[in-house]
Structure formats: structure tokens, C-alpha cells
Design brief:
The protein has 238 residues and is α+β, with helices and mostly antiparallel strands. It is built from 7 helices and 13 strands. The strands form 2 sheets. Strands 5, 6, 7, 8, 9, 10, 11, 12 and 13 form a 9-stranded mixed beta sheet that branches. It has a 4-stranded antiparallel beta sheet with strand order 2-1-3-4, with no helix packed on it. Bound molecules: uracil. The site of uracil has 8 residues, from α6.
Length: 238
Amino acid sequence: MRIDKLLAHSGLGTRREVKNLLKSSIIEINGVIVKDPKTQVDPDTDTVMIGGEELDYQEFVYFMLNKPAGVISATEDDMHDTVLDLLEPSDIVQEPHPVGRLDIDTEGLMLLTNDGKLTHKLLSPKRHVDKKYFAEIEGIVTESDVIEFEKGITLADDYVTMPAKLSILSVDEVEQTSKIEVTIQEGKFHQVKRMFHAVGKDVLYLKRLSMGSLELDPQLELGAYRECTKEEIAQLKS
Ligand code: URA
């Protein structure tokens, strides 16, 4: 890749700023000062030094975000803030994107990465990666719903979902609401809401707790994010 791209992706500034950095003769590749922004560099094999310090370049970035309601899980939107607006400018230089979609009113775990291979693996319909949600439901969720979810639910458009594991956490007979956890293996549009709709109930609140092996860090406030740990990344890839 070009040295100016590598430097910009490492958070050292815009392409223009990086060009000036190169002009100031402080960038070396394998001990040779480079000034031309077009110079090719291989981050895996070449050593890049900035003012005598070695650049620690990471090709891929992985962030875990606790998505709040009101933001869109896309990279751009004309009307609303997107999940990328919640990241520091220095964390978007490597162009991470959200892995999968959450509705605007859904909260919880959102993985953001520029690792296309991992994204594909997690989203591939063939892989059936588990997604676990907590939800508050309008209506009393019953054992018969649990059985229906286990069998697969026929949605309004006649699509039959894969089996889903539904656990009833609590029911409030007075308010006529229920708290549940549900694990689905697909990621159809509005899937959890449509599954409950099919059994005559509405989702009042929805939060994703996990995706595959990746669990939402309970320390993360709504809207906050952190880098995934090496272990989390390795587990997701395995
Ligand atoms: N299912 C839904 O209905 N909405 C989401 O955001 C995620 C799963």
C-alpha cells in the first residue's frame, strides 16, 4: 500500500497532513528516509519509523459498541446519527463498519470492524451465528410461546424461522408485560419483533446481548465503545 495511506490509517492525520509529515524527512522505511507519498510499503514486512519511533500498524480494527436507541447501524444516513458518529475521529480512519443491523430503537452489542473476512463469516446465512437478545414484551409470554419459538415461527410473509431459544425471565401480571431472552440464528429484518408479532405480542424494548462468542461488556455505558480484546477477536475468528 502507499505510505501516505498507511500513515493516514494509523491516525497520523489527513492525507494532506501526512504529505507534510513526509516532506519533513522524519519518515523512514527500512532505514531509508522517504518523502514521496506514493512510495509503496508492505506493513507486514517493512519497518516504518517516525522520528525514530517504530510505527505499530494494525490493518484491522475491532470495536465493541453499546448502541443506544436513536442511532442508525449504517455508515451514513441523511436524517440520523450513525454508529460511526459515536466513534472518535481517530478510530474511523480505518473505515470500520457495523457488522449486521440493529433497528434504530434497538440497543446493545454492535461490532464494528474493517475486517471483511470476519464480517462475512459472522453474517453468512450458512453459519447460523447465534444472536442473543433481552426484550421486554407487551403481553404474557407463555411456555407455549417457548415451544413455538423452538419449532420455528411462521412470520406474516409465510417465512418460517429457524428454531429460536426463548427463556422467560419474569412476567408482570398487573402490567401484562414479560421480560425474556431469545437467541436467534438468523438476522432477518426486524426478526425478533416479527416473531413476537406472529404470536400476538409486541416488543417494547430490545437489546442485543451477544453475537457468536462476543458478549456485550456490561461496563459499557450506552453509546460507549472499546476495542475488542485479543481473546475476543481470536474467539470470533475461530
Ligand atoms: N430483531 C429485531 O426485530 N430488531 C433488531 O434490531 C434486531 C433483531
